[in-house]
Write a structure and sequence with these properties.
Elements (H helix, E strand, L loop, with lengths): L5 E2 L13 E2 L56 H15 L13 E3 L4 E6 L2 H6 L4 E7 L4 H5 L6 E7 L5 E8 L6 H9 L4 H5 L10 H11 L14
Antiparallel strand pairs: 1-2, 3-4, 4-7, 5-6, 6-7
Amino acid sequence: ATPASSHVARPGNHAPAEAPRSEAVLVAIGRVPNGKNLDAGKAGVEVDDRGFIRVDKQLRTNVPHIFAIGDIVGQPMLAHKGVHEGHVAAEVIAGKKHYFDPKVIPSIAYTEPEVAWVGLTEKEAKEKGISYETATFPWAASGRAIASDCADGMTKLIFDKESHRVIGGAIVGTNGGELLGEIGLAIEMGCDAEDIALTIHAHPTLHESVGLAAEIFEGSITDLPNPKAKKK
C-alpha cells in the first residue's frame, strides 16, 4: 500500500510557492485557555491574567454555586485530570465533603517509543532539595521486550534516599504509559522500594520491569549484575 501523504499550506507573502508534503504532520503550537472568551466575568466568576478560572480544592469558583473543571482551571491540561475533577465537583454538589488533592498526575507523550512519567523528575527533586537515588532497569534485559521488538526501552524509578519511598518514575518504551499505574499508586500510598521489590510481578511481562528496578535499588536484583550485593 502507498503511504498517505499530507501537505500543509499557509497564506501570506512568506508562504512557499508550493506546499511541502510529508507522511506525517506534527502540530505542536500549544493551547491557550479561553476563560476570558467565555465571558465568565458576567457571572461574577474570577478569571486570572492567563485566562484560567480560579477554583479551590473542591473545584468551586469564587461564586459558590458555580464549579469549573478540566483545562480551564489550569495545568496540567490532561483529560484524566479533568475526569477526576469532574467526579469531585459532582460529589461536592451532591453534598459530600470531597477534595481534589492528588499527590501525582501521570503524563504520557504518545511518541514512538512512548515517554511516560509520574511524580517528581530528577530536576524537580533537585529543585526541592530532596536527596534522591535512581534505579533503571534496561528493557534489553527483558525477555518480553526482546520478543516484542522493543528492547531499547527502560524503566526508571526515583527514590527518596533517606526514606527509600518512591517519589517518581519514568518509562520509555512501547506502551510505556500502560506501566505507570503501579508507580503512581506506590507514590500515593507512600510505598518504599522494598514494598515494590517484594511484590511478585508476572513473568515474562514489561510490567515486571517496575519490580526489577526496585530490586536494583534494594540490591536484591538477580536478573542483572548486582553492584550492591554484599561481598562475602
